Amino acid sequence: MSEAPFVPREKILEKQRFFQNVQKHTYLKGRYDAITSVGIPLALAATSLFLIGRGIYNMSHGIGKKE
To answer: What predicted TM-score, i.e. pTM, was given to this entire model?
Structure first.
């Protein structure tokens, strides 16, 4: 008595062939993987650079000091 697999073997082999033939990085092979592995880190880096730059500008001009 063996249990039936969750996904048919043919679908697994088809997906394996697809992922082995795509000539991209393995972390960019899915449909939305480029957004999560490239877009989000770029947005975080840009936001942090903006906030650091604004803080340096405010410190150098004495803006927002508590008396």
So the answer is: 0.54
